[in-house]
């Protein structure tokens, strides 16, 4: 790690923030077309960093007109400046969960759910306390329940490979993720409720309508203007998914009575608690797993048999020594932990962070200081922060052992996927993901179960429509040793 990645000195030169917003209307449209079609997301930022010789720049962020009133942001594109977005004393997180626009509260039962609240709002404290309490009460359920769900997943994958010579991982993983989450919070198999097997499809549509302004269907170039007009000009109305959301809400309301009872003890109305529970389970958790599990499988599979052999040896040795898959066993798997962190680093499941400056402040990059004024929107593009070459050697390479050992563990403070440093734990006073530790745990269990059952695997990947990669498993080799 370079010494320049240490906290910047106050002696760094104070410079004006470079970049341009262009014309108030057409500048935003131009940037939007560049971002989605002409350049693509990474190239959009990379060309501007190169042009302005700065990792802190002015730009417009999608969707712009007519969905977002103000698309102008100060973009933070390095590991040093990015963490200012975690500081609730400096930035406000009110209604910026998805960026410069705010989806209709119709999608969440008329409530501004916890994700859209700033920590300064009293209801944020009560709702996040409620979330942390739920997760703590389910602690002993996580591992056995997820292992049960994974057993079914691997059976389904093997059946697909046997019959079709390959298995599309994403849809099978989505079904597993939703089954786990519904059974975790409602203690019931969703297939035995009114949701049936349609839970993932219902959620996907509900999320897609809210996030459409940030997405593209990746059309051929001659259709880009139609794609832009369809997705980025006007928000989709809630009524298109009203019946699906109603079924989801009613299923959670009917089967999560103990959790909703607990919410009332925190002073939260039952209906508000249930809409927040649906958002926590379906948007925060399911959508995160929908993005991250294909990413994890993609990078691990592409790393090759040498890493697979090392993972299998570590996992099987520790499980045999500990007598099973336990929290203690998982904690001893240093390579397995590192591989999960490396997956979260190289391709974070949530690439964007936003916050509005609460006051005038000075933000540092590696080599300069910049003043941000009160009221300006700050945007962080996390893949550039966690792939910062001044912090990580060979940042664009997947290095499975990157976080092993004392020096490797020091780099964990630069892994930001959970809306804070990996070395921090969520509290009611911040916006860090309340399920941060659960996500890391599930990813470890996923790898453990995979390499207890199999020696190696191969995949084919391509870019998906959303943030996730599209992954197809083409082979699985059964474990030859235990």
From TrEMBL:
Note one Pfam family from the annotation. Answer: p450
- Superkingdom is Eukaryota
**Keywords, comma-separated and alphabetical:** Iron, Metal-binding
Q: State the InterPro entries in the record.
A: Cyt_P450, Cyt_P450_E_grp-IV, Cyt_P450_sf
Please state which protein family the record places this protein in.
Belongs to the cytochrome P450 family.
- Cross-referenced PANTHER family, in alphabetical order? ALLENE OXIDE SYNTHASE 2, CYTOCHROME P450 26
- What's the name of the protein? Allene oxide synthase
The scientific name of the source species is Hevea brasiliensis
């Amino acid at each position: 790690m370079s010494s320049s990645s240490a906290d910047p000195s106050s002696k760094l030169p104070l410079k004006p923030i470079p970049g341009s917003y262009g014309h108030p209307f057409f500048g935003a449209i131009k940037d939007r077309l560049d971002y989605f079609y002409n350049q693509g997301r990474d190239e959009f930022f990379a060309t501007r960093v190169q042009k302005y010789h700065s990792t802190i720049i002015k730009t417009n962020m999608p969707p712009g007109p007519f969905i977002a009133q103000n698309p102008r942001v100060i973009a933070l594109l390095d590991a040093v400046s990015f963490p200012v977005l975690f500081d609730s004393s400096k930035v406000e997180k009110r209604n910026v969960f998805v960026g410069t626009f705010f989806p209709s509260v119709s999608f969440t039962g008329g409530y501004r759910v916890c994700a859209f609240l700033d920590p300064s709002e009293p209801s944020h404290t009560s709702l996040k306390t409620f979330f942390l309490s739920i997760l703590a009460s389910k602690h002993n359920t996580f591992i056995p329940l997820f292992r049960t769900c994974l057993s079914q997943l691997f059976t389904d994958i093997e059946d697909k490979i046997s019959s079709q010579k390959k298995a599309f991982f994403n849809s099978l993983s989505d079904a597993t993720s939703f089954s786990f989450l519904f059974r975790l919070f409602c203690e019931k198999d969703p297939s035995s409720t009114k949701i049936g097997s349609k839970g993932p499809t219902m959620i996907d549509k509900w999320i897609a309508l809210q996030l459409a302004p940030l997405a593209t269907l990746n059309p051929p170039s001659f259709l880009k203007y139609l794609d832009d007009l369809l997705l980025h000009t006007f928000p989709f109305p809630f009524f298109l998914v009203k019946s699906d959301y109603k079924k989801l809400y009613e299923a959670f309301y009917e089967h999560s009575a103990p959790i909703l009872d607990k919410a009332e003890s925190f002073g939260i109305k039952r209906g508000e608690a249930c809409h927040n529970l649906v958002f926590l389970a379906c948007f925060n958790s399911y959508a995160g797993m929908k993005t991250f599990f294909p990413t994890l499988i993609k990078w691990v599979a592409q790393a090759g048999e040498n890493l697979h052999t090392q993972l299998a040896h570590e996992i099987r040795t520790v499980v045999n020594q500990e007598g099973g898959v336990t929290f203690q066993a998982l904690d001893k798997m240093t390579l397995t932990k590192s591989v999960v962190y490396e997956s979260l680093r190289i391709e974070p499941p949530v690439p964007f962070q936003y916050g509005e400056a609460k006051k005038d402040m000075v933000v540092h990059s590696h080599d300069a200081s910049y003043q941000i004024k009160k009221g300006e929107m700050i945007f962080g593009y996390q893949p550039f922060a966690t792939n910062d070459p001044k912090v990580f050697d060979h940042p664009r390479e997947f290095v499975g052992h990157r976080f092993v050992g004392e020096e490797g563990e020091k780099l964990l403070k630069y892994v930001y996927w959970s809306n804070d440093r990996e070395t921090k734990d969520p509290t009611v006073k911040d916006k860090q993901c309340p399920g941060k530790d659960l996500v890391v745990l599930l990813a470890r269990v996923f790898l453990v179960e995979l390499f207890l059952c199999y020696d190696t695997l191969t995949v084919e990947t391509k870019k998906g429509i959303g943030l996730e990669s599209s992954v197809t498993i083409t082979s699985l080799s059964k474990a030859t040793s235990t």
